[in-house]
C-alpha cells in the first residue's frame, strides 16, 4: 500500500515535470529546426537535421546585440536600485512599529502592488514624452525599480524580521549609532535574503513587457519587446522566434538551477512570515 | 513576533523613528513619481476628451467618459471575462498547486530535483512562453492538437472559438502560476507543527481525514494570500493575452478589463476613455486592498 | 540626488548632445518590413552621394503609429521621414501628423507621379492632400497551386461562382483543402473585400452603417461558406497564418495581399516554389480592387524637410524603381517597372498592379475611428462565421454597434 503510494507520487510528479518542461523542450527544439520541419505533421521530435540558421538570423538582426545588452544593463541597474530602496524601507517597517508615514507607506505599497500597470501607462507615456524621457534607459530603470518595490519590500521585511533584535540592542548599548548598526550589524546578516530578493527582482525585471513596449523605442528596447515583435511584424517564421525565446530563457534557466535553493528559501520565507 | 521585543529608552526610540522615516523616503519618492502622479494624471485625463493625436480640441467633458464606459456592453463583458479567468484559473491552480505541494512535502528521494523543475515555468519570460503556447495550440500545426487528435475525433479549435480560447488562456495562465501556488503552500506546510497531524493519525484518522480536518484548515491563511495575489495578477494579466489570443480574441472572448483599457487607449487612440476605464478598474480593486491589509497581517 | 533629479539631469545632458549635432542629418522612422529593409539598403549610396548622415529608428508595427502620433503631437521634431500603413492615413490626416507633399510631388521630375496610374496617384491622399508617397502596392489577389489545378484539370476561377466550384472540387478530390481565407483575427480584411465585391458598402456617404444590406449579407455569407473548404484551423487563421498555411500545406487557393509574395519566393520557406500561380481576384457583382500597402512621408514637425524630400526622391524616384524592387521590397505599382522582363521572372504578379480604371479601387476606410470600427467588426465576426448566429441577424446587430462609432467620426 505504501509502496503503491510512493509509486503513484512519483508518477504524478513525473507527469507534472513533463508538463512543466515540454514547452521549454519544444521551444529549444523548434529553434534548431529547419523551417519545413517546424510545420511538419506529425511533429518531428528528434528526426531532423539541426540547424543554427535561426540563431544566425537572430544575431544578424540589426540591433540585436544592443537589445540584449540593454536587457542586461537595465535589469542589473534597476534590480540593484530596487533592492537597495526596498531594503531601507523594509528595515524601517520591520524595526519601527511606529514612525511618521508608516501607515500610508503600508497602504501605498499594497496599492502599487495591486494597481494594474496599464492604468498608469497612458499618463506616464505622456509625462515621459514631455520630459524627453521616452526611450531613455534611466527612465526604464526607475520604472522597473518602482514596480518591483512592493514585492521586494515585502520579502525584505520578513528577512529583516528574522535578525535577532538582541544583536542590535547590544550594539546600541556599546554606543553604536542607528546608522552604524544598520550597516555593520544588520546588513551582513540579511545579505542572503538580499541575494534571494535580488534574483527574484532580476527575473521579474528581465521578463517585464508592458513598460518597455510603451516607453522604449529603438535605443532602450528589451528582449521581451523584441520577441513580441515577431507577431506584429509580418513575420512568418517560428524558428527565429523560438531562437530568440531560447536566448531570453537560457539565462533564467541557468539562474534557476544555480540558485534554486535560494529561490525556494526566499519565497518560503516571504510566504510564511509575510 | 520581533515587534513585541521593543522596549527601549524614549530617546533611542525617537531616534529609531526618525531613522525609519528617513529610510522610507527613497521608497516614497518612487511610489509618488511612478504611481501617485500618473494616477492623478489618469483621473485628470478621464474628465477630458483627449485622443492620441488630438483629433478634437481637448476640453473638459465631466463624467461623460464614465457614462460611456458604463453604457458600453464591452465594459460589462470584459468584467465577466476577468471574473471567469479568476474563478476558472483558481479552480485549476489551487488543487494542482496544493496537491503538488503535498507530494513534495512527503520528502521522497529526488524531491529537490522535482521542486527545481516544477518552479521553472513561473520564472520564464511570459512573452516567450506565450508565443510558444500559441504555436503549440495551433489547430493545424500545433503539437497539442496533434496529440489530442490521436485520442479524439475533433480536438477543440483552441484559439478560434470563444470558450476554447477562454480555456486556453486558463491553461497557459495556470501553467505559469501553479508553481507559485505550489511554492507558497509548500512553504506553509513546512512551517506547520507536525503535532496535530500526528495526533490525529494516532487517533485513527486516515490520510484524507488528516488532510481535510487538520492540514487544510491550517493552510487557509496562505490560501487566502494566494487567492488575493492571483486575483490581482489576473486583473493585471497582459503579456499572455497580448500574445496568445492576440489582444483578447477571438472577438471579445478573452478581452479582460485591463486589455479593454489598452485597446481603447492605444488601438482606438481614445486615451481619455481609456483613463476612465483605468480609474474604474482601480476602484474595483478596492475590496482587495482592504482584504489584503487584513489577511496580510495574519502570520 | 533623488532619482527624479538624476533622471532630469540625464535628460538635460541628452538634450545638449542632441542640439550640438550636425545639421546635415536625417532621421528615418521605419516599421520592420521588407520595404524598410529595402529602403535601408540604399542609405550608404545616399550618404555617399549627399554627405547627409542617415539614422534609422525601427518601431514594431503594433506601436509604431501610436508613437508617431504622440511624438508629432508634442512637436518633438524627432523624425524627418516616416513610414506608415495606409490604414492610418485618416488618423494621421485628422491629427495633422504628416506634411502635405503635393507641391513637391508636382515639381519633381525625378519622382514622376505620371508613372503611376490614376488610382494609385491618390493612394496617399487624405481630404484632397497627399500625405504620403506610395511605398508598396498590395492588392488582394488570387493565389493558387498550379500543380493541384493541373492535376485536377481545373481552370483559374474568374468569378466567385467558379472559385466556389474549384474549392469544392479540390476538397472533394482529397488532394488538399480547397482554399484559405483569413477567418481569424484579421477577418476584417476579407470581410470588407467580400462586401465590396458583392456590391455592398461598409457605410454610406453620411456615415450610416450599411453592413446588413442584401449585398453585404451575400458577401459575408460567401466568406462564411468558404470556411468549409478550408483547413481545420481556418477559423483562427490570422493574416499571416493564411500565408503560412498556404505555403506549407496542400491548399488549392487563397485570397491574399500580393505583398506576401516575397515569402513565397524562398525555397527554404516553402517546398511549393514554382508551383504557385497568381491571378486577379475573382469578380463578384462589382469589379473592385482591394488595395493595401505602405505609405511614406514627412512628419509635420520634421526639422530637415528638404533633406527628407531628397531622400524620398532618391530611394523612390523613377530611376531607382527596378533596383528598389530587386532589393526585396513589396512592389510599388510604377508603370515603368511592371513589364520589366527581369523583374517579371521574380515577381510574376506585377501586371496585376496595373489596376485598370474599370476596377474600382477600395482602400481601408479613411476614418479616424477605423481602429474602433474594425475592432467592432472583428468582435462580431467569430459568432457569424462559426454559425452561432445567422449571417443576417449577426450583421443587423453589427450594423447597430457600428452606428455610434461612426457617429463619433461625424461629430468632429
Question: Concise description?
Answer:
Chain A has 274 residues and is an all-alpha fold.
Strand and helix layout:
The complex is a heterotrimer of chains A (274), B (299) and C (412).
Chain A (H helix, E strand, L loop, with lengths): L1 H30 L3 H4 L14 H8 L3 H32 L6 H13 L2 H14 L6 H26 L2 H9 L4 H30 L2 H6 L7 H10 L5 H21 L1 H14 L1
Helix pairs in contact in A: 1-12, 3-12, 4-7, 4-9, 5-7, 7-9, 7-13, 8-9, 9-13, 11-12
Chain B lengths: L9 H14 L1 H22 L17 H8 L1 H33 L5 H13 L2 H11 L6 H9 L10 H30 L3 H8 L4 H30 L2 H6 L12 H11 L3 H14 L1 H12 L2
Chain C lengths: L2 H17 L5 E6 L3 H8 L1 H8 L2 E6 L2 H13 L7 E5 L3 H7 L6 H5 L11 H4 L3 E2 L2 E2 L2 E2 L3 E8 H7 L7 H14 L3 E4 L6 H11 L16 H12 L13 H10 L2 E7 L3 H4 L11 E5 L7 E5 L1 E4 L7 H12 L4 H6 L8 H4 L2 H6 L13 E3 L7 H16 L5 H20 L2
Parallel strand pairs in C: 1-2, 1-3, 8-9, 11-13
Antiparallel strand pairs in C: 3-12, 4-5, 6-12, 7-9, 7-10, 7-11
Describe the structure.
The complex is a heterotrimer of chains A (274), B (299) and C (412). By secondary structure, chain A is mainly alpha-helical. Chain A is 79% helix and 0% strand. The radius of gyration of chain A is 23 Å and the shape is globular. In chain B, 74% of the residues lie in helices and 0% in strands. Chain C has 412 residues and is α/β, with parallel strands linked by helices. Chain C has 2 domains: 20-137 and 293-361, Periplasmic binding protein-like II (D-Maltodextrin-Binding Protein, domain 2), CATH 3.40.190.10; 140-290 and 367-410, Periplasmic binding protein-like II (D-Maltodextrin-Binding Protein, domain 2, 3-Layer(aba) Sandwich), CATH 3.40.190.10. Chain C is 45% helix and 14% strand. Chain C has 19 helices and 13 strands. In chain C, strand 4 (125-126) and strand 5 form a beta hairpin. Chain C is globular and about 65 Å long. In chain C, 53% of the residues are buried. Residues 1-22 of chain C have low confidence and may be disordered. At the A-B interface, helix 1, helix 4, helix 5, helix 6 and helix 7 of A face helix 1, helix 2, helix 4, helix 5 and helix 6 of B.
Amino acid at each position: 500500500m505504501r509502496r503503491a503510494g510512493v509509486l503513484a507520487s512519483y508518477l504524478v510528479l513525473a507527469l507534472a515535470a513533463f508538463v512543466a518542461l515540454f514547452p521549454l523542450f519544444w521551444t529549444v527544439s523548434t529553434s534548431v529546426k529547419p523551417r519545413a520541419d517546424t510545420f511538419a505533421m506529425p511533429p518531428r521530435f528528434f528526426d531532423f537535421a539541426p540547424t543554427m540558421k535561426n540563431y544566425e538570423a537572430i544575431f544578424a538582426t540589426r540591433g540585436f546585440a544592443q537589445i540584449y545588452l540593454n536587457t542586461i544593463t537595465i535589469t542589473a541597474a534597476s534590480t540593484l536600485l530596487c533592492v537597495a530602496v526596498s531594503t531601507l524601507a523594509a528595515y524601517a517597517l520591520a524595526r519601527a512599529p511606529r514612525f511618521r508615514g508608516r501607515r500610508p507607506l503600508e497602504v501605498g505599497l499594497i496599492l502599487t502592488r495591486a494597481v494594474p500597470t496599464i492604468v498608469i501607462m497612458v499618463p506616464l507615456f505622456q509625462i515621459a514624452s514631455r520630459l524627453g524621457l521616452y526611450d531613455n534607459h534611466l527612465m526604464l530603470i526607475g520604472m522597473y525599480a518602482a514596480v518591483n518595490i512592493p514585492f521586494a519590500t515585502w520579502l525584505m521585511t520578513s528577512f529583516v524580521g528574522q535578525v535577532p533584535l538582541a544583536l542590535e540592542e547590544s550594539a546600541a548599548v556599546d554606543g553604536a549609532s542607528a546608522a552604524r548598526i544598520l550597516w555593520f550589524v544588520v546588513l551582513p546578516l540579511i545579505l542572503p535574503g538580499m541575494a534571494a530578493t535580488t534574483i527574484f527582482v532580476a527575473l521579474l525585471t528581465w521578463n517585464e513587457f508592458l513598460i518597455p513596449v510603451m516607453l522604449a523605442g529603438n535605443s532602450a528596447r528589451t528582449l521581451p519587446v523584441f520577441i513580441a515583435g515577431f507577431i506584429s511584424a509580418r513575420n512568418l517564421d517560428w524558428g527565429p522566434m523560438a531562437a530568440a525565446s531560447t536566448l531570453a530563457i537560457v539565462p533564467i534557466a541557468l539562474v534557476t538551477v544555480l540558485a534554486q535553493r535560494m529561490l525556494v528559501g526566499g519565497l518560503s520565507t516571504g510566504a510564511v512570515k509575510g | 513576533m520581533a515587534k513585541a521585543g521593543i522596549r527601549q529608552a524614549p530617546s533611542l526610540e525617537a531616534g529609531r523613528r526618525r531613522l525609519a522615516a528617513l529610510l522610507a523616503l527613497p521608497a516614497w519618492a518612487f511610489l509618488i513619481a511612478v504611481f501617485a502622479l500618473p494616477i492623478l494624471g489618469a483621473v485628470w485625463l478621464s474628465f477630458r476628451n483627449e485622443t492620441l493625436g488630438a483629433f478634437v480640441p481637448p476640453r473638459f467633458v465631466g463624467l461623460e467618459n464614465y457614462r460611456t464606459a458604463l453604457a458600453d456592453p464591452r465594459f460589462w463583458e470584459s468584467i465577466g471575462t476577468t471574473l471567469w479567468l479568476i474563478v476558472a484559473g483558481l479552480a485549476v491552480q489551487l488543487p494542482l498547486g496544493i496537491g503538488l505541494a503535498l507530494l513534495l512535502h512527503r520528502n521522497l528521494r529526488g524531491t529537490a530535483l522535482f521542486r527545481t523543475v516544477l518552479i521553472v515555468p513561473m520564472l520564464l519570460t511570459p512573452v516567450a512562453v506565450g508565443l510558444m503556447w500559441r504555436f503549440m495550440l495551433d489547430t493545424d500545426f500545433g503539437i497539442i492538437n496533434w496529440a489530442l487528435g490521436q485520442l479524439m475525433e475533433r480536438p477543440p479549435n483552441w484559439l478560434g472559438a470563444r470558450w476554447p480560447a477562454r480555456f486556453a488562456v486558463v491553461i497557459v495562465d495556470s501553467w505559469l502560476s501553479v508553481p507559485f501556488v505550489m511554492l507558497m503552500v509548500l512553504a506553509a506546510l513546512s512551517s506547520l507543527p507536525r503535532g496535530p497531524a500526528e495526533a490525529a493519525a494516532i487517533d485513527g484518522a486516515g490520510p484524507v481525514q488528516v488532510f481535510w480536518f487538520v492540514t487544510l484548515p491550517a493552510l487557509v491563511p496562505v490560501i487566502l494570500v494566494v487567492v488575493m495575489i492571483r486575483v490581482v495578477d489576473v486583473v493585471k494579466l497582459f503579456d499572455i493575452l497580448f500574445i496568445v489570443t492576440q489582444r483578447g480574441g477571438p472577438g471579445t472572448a478573452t478581452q479582460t478589463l485591463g486589455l479593454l483599457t489598452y485597446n481603447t487607449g492605444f488601438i482606438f487612440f481614445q486615451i481619455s476613455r481609456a483613463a476612465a476605464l483605468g480609474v474604474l478598474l482601480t476602484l474595483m480593486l478596492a475590496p482587495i486592498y482592504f482584504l489584503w491589509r487584513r489577511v496580510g497581517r495574519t502570520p | 540626488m533623488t532619482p527624479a533629479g538624476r533622471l532630469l539631469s540625464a535628460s538635460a545632458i541628452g538634450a545638449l548632445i542632441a542640439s550640438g549635432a550636425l545639421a546635415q542629418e536625417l532621421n528615418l522612422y521605419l516599421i520592420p518590413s521588407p520595404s524598410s529593409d529595402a529602403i535601408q539598403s540604399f542609405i550608404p549610396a545616399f550618404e555617399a552621394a549627399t554627405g547627409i548622415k542617415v539614422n534609422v529608428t525601427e518601431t514594431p508595427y503594433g506601436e509604431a503609429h501610436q508613437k508617431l502620433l504622440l511624438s508629432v503631437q508634442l512637436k518633438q521634431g524627432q523624425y524627418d521621414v516616416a513610414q506608415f500603413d495606409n490604414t492610418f492615413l485618416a488618423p494621421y490626416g485628422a491629427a495633422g501628423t504628416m506634411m502635405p507633399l503635393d507641391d513637391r510631388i508636382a515639381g519633381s521630375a525625378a519622382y514622376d507621379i505620371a508613372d503611376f496610374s490614376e488610382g494609385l496617384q491618390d493612394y496617399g491622399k487624405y481630404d484632397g492632400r497627399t500625405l504620403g508617397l506610395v511605398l508598396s502596392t498590395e492588392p488582394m489577389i488570387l493565389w493558387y497551386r498550379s500543380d493541384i489545378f493541373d492535376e485536377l484539370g481545373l481552370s483559374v476561377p474568374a468569378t466567385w461562382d467558379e472559385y466556389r466550384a474549384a474549392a469544392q472540387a479540390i476538397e472533394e478530390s482529397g488532394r488538399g483543402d480547397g482554399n484559405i481565407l483569413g477567418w481569424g483575427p484579421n477577418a476584417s480584411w476579407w470581410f470588407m473585400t467580400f462586401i465590396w465585391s458583392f456590391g455592398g458598402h461598409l457605410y454610406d456617404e453620411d456615415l450610416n452603417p450599411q453592413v446588413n444590406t442584401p449585398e453585404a449579407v451575400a458577401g459575408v455569407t460567401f466568406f462564411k461558406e468558404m470556411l468549409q473548404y478550408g483547413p481545420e484551423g481556418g477559423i483562427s487563421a490570422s493574416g499571416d497564418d493564411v500565408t503560412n498555411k498556404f505555403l506549407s500545406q496542400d491548399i488549392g487557393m487563397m485570397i491574399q495581399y500580393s505583398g506576401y509574395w516575397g515569402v513565397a519566393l524562398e525555397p527554404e520557406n516553402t517546398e511549393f516554389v514554382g508551383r504557385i500561380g497568381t491571378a486577379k481576384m475573382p469578380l463578384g457583382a462589382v469589379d473592385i480592387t482591394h488595395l493595401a500597402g505602405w505609405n511614406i512621408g514627412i512628419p509635420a514637425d520634421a526639422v530637415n524637410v528638404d533633406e527628407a524630400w531628397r531622400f524620398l526622391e532618391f530611394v523612390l524616384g523613377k530611376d531607382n524603381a527596378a533596383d528598389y524592387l530587386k532589393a526585396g521590397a513589396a512592389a510599388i505599382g510604377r508603370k515603368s517597372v511592371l513589364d520589366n522582363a527581369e523583374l517579371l521572372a521574380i515577381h510574376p504578379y506585377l501586371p496585376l498592379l496595373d489596376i485598370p480604371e474599370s476596377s474600382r479601387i477600395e482602400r481601408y476606410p479613411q476614418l479616424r475611428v477605423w481602429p474602433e470600427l474594425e475592432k467592432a467588426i472583428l468582435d462580431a465576426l467569430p459568432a457569424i462565421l462559426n454559425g452561432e448566429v445567422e449571417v443576417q441577424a449577426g450583421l443587423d446587430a453589427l450594423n447597430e454597434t457600428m452606428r455610434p462609432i461612426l457617429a463619433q467620426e461625424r461629430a468632429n
